[in-house]
Amino acid sequence: MRVRPRAPHTDRSRGAHAHGDRQVLASRRCACLRLRAFPRPWPGLRPVLEAHGRQRGPFLLEAVKSPEAPELAATMKEQIQNQLDHLKRVKDLKKRRRAQGEQARAELLSLTQMEREKIVWEFEQLYHSLKEHEYRLLARLEELDLAIYNSINGAITQFSCNISHLSGLIAQLEEKQQQPTRELLQDIGDTLSRAERIRIPEPWITPPDLQEKIHIFAQKCLFLTESLKQFTEKMQSDMEKIQELREAQLYSVDVTLDPDTAYPSLILSDNLRQVRYSYLQQDLPDNPERFNLFPCVLGSPCFIAGRHYWEVEVGDKAKWTIGVCEDSVCRKGGVTSAPQNGFWAVSLWYGKEYWALTSPMTALPLRTPLQRVGVFLDYDAGEVSFYNVTERCHTFTFSHATFCGPVRPYFSLSYSGGKSAAPLIICPMSGIDGFSGHVGDHSHSMETSP
């Protein structure tokens, strides 16, 4: 009898065996995990679990028959309840977060709606105001049209009558010129006399009162055109400056005063954010960092790169200087605050004169007094900019500055009586105008120890 050779293993059969082995290993792994998950040995169930790990039998059916099955079920129910409690807590928190998100969305949308209504209302008021001016100007033009018609129409009518009379006289003379001698000489004197009485008209002159009225109206129109142009340009510029100030405030840093640099007549607050002038000098060591002639004090930290912004409340003080200076500036004796000496600052003199301390100095014709000054240092670009924070507008910028080393906030003030006795205040920048943190280039600043 011939023996039929055994069929060789195919890839499919090898794959099936491998798949079965993987299932067995996975089943054993699950059984081990179940054993480790139980809080106690469960001796009655352990053989069932181990058997389940070795073979692919009906584990649940065998587990139910075990004596410990009720206790196991109670434990599993407790674990399920714990998970249910956890999931319900998470669900409640998710609902709460969703409600908070919906509330935040509603509040923000309410704010944008309020801004939308304000914008629409403001532009409607502007539109009505412009329409009123337009109506008045057009009405004035109609009055001018009527005045021109009434004033010149009489002269035009008179000229028309004169032209008709001249046409008749010319026709008579032409006819007379063609007559025979006897008829030509008859009444020739009277005919020529009538012609000689005709005078050459004076050059046309527009009535001066009309010229003056038209000139005044043209000036009004020119003023209106310039005003609208300036308004449009200012609105565009102000929007850009507001955006510019917002961008500067993104680089807000906390600045404090360095007591080691303060002139002895300057009194610093405990938190090193306020400084005021006193006639009585304090008994302070004349260390190298301290100003000994002018009432100046420097701020901390030092800046060696990057962008940095801070704000100073000047209030109603009559004399102050605010800006930045190089850390290496002369502290002893007299020194002029100017870029060539390492100072970039703006100043108020005698409560009314604002100056940028350029060389020579630049007058700042500000429309409103400065109450709160923003200082923005762009070290890498060589720029120091100043802002009127209250009016949210740009004041002055030092450009193309060359910094020879670390740069520090700079303050100077003096006493002139009255309201100016109030201190200069460095404003905390946390949460300013909606900003909740400081994102200035802290990696480019150096703390100075008092």
Concise description?
Helix content is 46%, strand content 16%. It has 450 residues and is of the alpha+beta class.
What does this structure look like?
This protein is an alpha+beta fold. Among the domains are: 71-203; 256-426, Jelly Rolls (Sandwich). The chain contains 7 helices and 16 strands. It has helices at 11-37, 46-54, 59-65, 69-177, 181-185, 188-196, 208-249; strands at residues 256-257, 266-268, 274-277, 296-300, 302-303, 307-313, 320-326, 343-349, 353-356, 362-363, 372-378, 383-388, 393-398, 407-413, 424-426, 445-446. The strands form 3 sheets. A 7-stranded antiparallel beta sheet has the order 1-4-14-7-8-9-10, with no helix packed on it. Strands 2-3-15-6-11-12-13 form a 7-stranded antiparallel beta sheet, with helices on one face. Strand 9 (353-356) and strand 10 (362-363) form a beta hairpin. The radius of gyration is 48 Å and the shape is elongated. The N and C termini lie far apart (109 Å). Residues 235-429 form the B30.2/SPRY domain. Residues 1-21 are annotated as: Disordered. InterPro entries: B30.2/SPRY, B30.2/SPRY_sf, Butyrophylin_SPRY, ConA-like_dom_sf, PRY, SPRY/PRY_TRIM27, SPRY_dom, TRIM/RBCC.
